[in-house]
């Protein structure tokens, strides 16, 4: 995920906007989840919600995470089926 989760607020906001536009802002209601992440991802993710709130963009962290995961899944699909 460190490849897909930007470190700067500007890049995070751009990723969230890209994600929302790709879904035509229809992202539905999700469910809370927890995931294990690497120390590199944790360093970004731990303060993400607070950093976005301070930037005047509260409640958008979920769209940043969703955008990063969406990019990862698209790249994974482009790689083709998993081998045995």
Draw up the topology in text.
Elements: H1 9-22, H2 39-45, H3 48-54, H4 61-78
State the end-to-end CA separation: 23 Å
**Coarse shape:** globular
Per DSSP E runs of 2 or more residues, the count of β-strands stands at 0
Uncertain residue ranges: none
Helix count equals 4
Radius of gyration: 13 Å
Please indicate the percent range of residues in DSSP E strands (runs of 2 or more): under 5%
Overall average pLDDT: 86
> What class would the helix/strand composition place it in?
mainly alpha
Let me know the largest β-sheet.
none
Helix content: 40-55%
Would you give an account of this structure?
With 84 residues, the chain is mainly alpha-helical. 55% of the residues lie in helices and 0% in strands. It has helices spanning 9-22, 39-45, 48-54, 61-78. The model has no long low-confidence stretch (mean pLDDT 86).
Tags for this model:
mainly alpha, single chain, 55% helix
């Amino acid at each position: 995920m460190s490849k897909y989760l930007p470190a700067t607020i500007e890049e995070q906001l751009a990723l969230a906007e890209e994600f929302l536009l790709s879904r035509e802002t229809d992202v539905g209601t999700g469910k809370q989840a927890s995931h294990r992440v690497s120390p590199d991802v944790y360093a970004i993710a731990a303060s993400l919600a607070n950093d976005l709130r301070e930037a005047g963009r509260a409640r958008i962290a979920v769209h940043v995470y969703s955008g990063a995961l969406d990019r990862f899944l698209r790249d994974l699909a482009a790689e083709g089926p998993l081998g045995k």
